[in-house]
Amino acid sequence: MIDLIKERLEEYGTQDPVQKQYAVKEILQEIALFGLWKTGFFEYAAFQGGSSLRILYGMPRFSEDLDFILKQPDPGFEWSAYLNGMTACFETFGLTVEILDKSRMDQRIKKALLKNDSTGLQLNLTFARERLQKIQKIKFEIDVNPPEHSLFNYTYIEKKGGCN
Q1: Strand locations in 12-148, DSSP E?
Q2: pTM of the model
Q3: Where are the domains of the chain?
Q4: How do residues 118-131 score in pLDDT, each as one tens digit?
């Protein structure tokens, strides 16, 4: 599956180390979204925010994190039910990631953090050393108390490959 990630990276057509690092992060974000989908996460939550505009609609912007909102209020929401499935999806792609639940029960916004320090090595990439870190981090945030009367639009990402 590393070859699939390399193919996807080539689609970006960039040699600039900064742009290449952003492309790798976006590919990792897409794998994370696929992993969440495989766990049934999107039955209960919706993808929103800057990353959704870029990934789903091609907007020319980049966002560091993945933002979600529950379709129905659930102050007891826990990331743990979805993190193992997401980790397994990354393993299917040949990537080892660490995903940490950073939530506290009393918060409206529940957080998780994905860390990966091996993708650059596995893809034989060189990133700009002065300005960028080799460790890729993706923050996940979900609003567990959505506004009343929220509306949801369903859009799908269609890419080659995937998790079993």
Answers
A1: 45-48, 65-70, 98-101, 109-116, 136-143
A2: 0.82
A3: 2-143
A4: 555 455 554 445 44
